[in-house]
Amino acid sequence: MNNRMNPRDRYYAEMRAAEERRAEAARRAAEENRRRELLEQKRRYNEKMERRRRHEAMMRKKKRRAYAGRVLLFVVCFLIIFTVVMLCVFVSFHMKPIELPDNDSYDVYFGEGDGRLETEVARAKLDRGGVRYVDYTKLAEYLSLTVVGGSGTYRFVIPGTEEETVFTDGSPEAYVNGEVYRMKGNAAVESGKVWVPLSFVSECMTGVNVTEDDEKMTITFLSSGSVGFTMKRAETLGPIPDGSTPVTDEPPVSDDPPEPEFTSDLSAFEQYMNPADRDAYLILVNSTHKIDRDYAPDDLVDIVNTRADGRKEVMRECAEKALEALFIELYANGYDAKGPSGYPVSVMSAYRSYDKQEYLFNIYTQNEMHDNPALTREEAEAITATYSARPGTSEHQTGLCVDMHNLPAADQKFASQEAYEWLRDNAWKFGFILRFPEDKEEITGITFEPWHYRFVGRYHAYKIWKAGMCLEEYVESLGGQA
Ligand SMILES: [Zn+2]
């Protein structure tokens, strides 16, 4: 049929067919484009997902690392803290025996084995002013002594014998079989119990042994044979810790100082002027008896009688109280007039630490070298040493002495004042001595210092004053090394 189409129709048919082919080609091209586009999109999406996956993996890795770091840090910190804590525990454990607080207590045993009595005694009750005490009532109970007492006087009798000892509350004197024995401290009656210095037991008793263990903090009394009272005069009072402090071993009652008479009522100061532990303040410090760099008294108190110019000076408590009494009596005797300084006699200098003395000594030495540049350091120090103590050789570090006068500065002119004469003659009553007398310069090595007074307690002060000795001579006379 087609063949038989007329040319016009055929032309149109061909045109249509061509048209259709073009359209078909265009449609296919579009389809191809679309397919490529989709493929491209898919590729990009995959890429993006891959990147994200990698990023997340990296982040996870980082996080893990950070976590591990924190754990490590924690462990290290923990180890450090643990070590420090253990170290502290270790140190404090090992320090314990050295730093015993005052309120610690001792275990006191009477006897041994099953039947032994045990009491716990506070240190403060046991150690009073450097003297160790014992509850004598308890000891008497253990030793089966008979006790008769009341109104401050207690008599301890050994049954079946004539032997007895009598203690009086507040008195250092014990009557042993009728003889007076002076103890190292006063007897004290507390809630019906008689406390006496422990040394009484070893010095005046037989048949009882005392064992003190300061490390374990125990004291053990053990009866050994028949108990008796006997004064062992020949024995010494036992060692005093400081090497330069002598032991007084002669019968102490024979030359007690006379009872001083005062214008004022000084009864409240008696216990300080005449301390129960009479050897506690006898320490000797000079160029050959040096005092430790670290030594510092733990009972320093403010001095009342300093100049009214705001001066603050300190010294040991017992000496300060005795000094207060001295000033009350000095002023009451009319020596309260103002001197050349505009002040009556008053304290200018008392306790000085090692460091302060070292500082002063260095300043003086430098001044000497400045005044005379030809001097060597050694020569300058030797000159300084004639008027200022080298550090460690100054008595001022003991906290037991004062410089007092009424001049603008310490000067030998003070010796011409009436107040000086009174001090020279009366200081012993308050437990003080003139430490560097005019006629003892050869022995003390220090030029006359009418202003420097040293506390030793009345007992020794009286003996030193009466014998006209200086402290070095006195200590030597007691058998100590001067
Ligand atoms: Zn002085």
Structure description:
Strands 5-6-7-8-9 form a 5-stranded antiparallel beta sheet, covered by helices on one side. A 4-stranded mixed beta sheet has the order 2-1-13-12. It has helices at residues 7-95, 123-126, 136-142, 199-204, 270-273, 317-332, 354-371, 377-384, 418-426, 441-444, 458-467, 471-477, and strands at residues 105-110, 117-122, 127-128, 131-135, 146-150, 153-157, 164-168, 173-176, 179-182, 188-190, 193-197, 205-213, 218-229, 300-302, 314-316, 346-349, 401-405, 432-434, 452-455. With 482 residues, it is an alpha+beta fold. 38% of the residues lie in helices and 19% in strands. It has 3 domains: 2-95; 105-229, Copper amine oxidase-like, N-terminal domain (Copper Amine Oxidase, Chain A, domain 1, 2-Layer Sandwich), CATH 3.30.457.10; 267-352 and 394-477, Muramoyl-pentapeptide Carboxypeptidase, domain 2 (2-Layer Sandwich), CATH 3.30.1380. The model is unreliable at 234-247 and 249-254 (pLDDT under 50). Helix 7 packs across helix 8 (377-384). It contains 12 helices and 19 strands. Strand 5 (146-150) and strand 6 form a beta hairpin. The N and C termini lie far apart (163 Å). It binds zinc ion. Residues 396, 401, 403, 452 line the site of zinc ion.
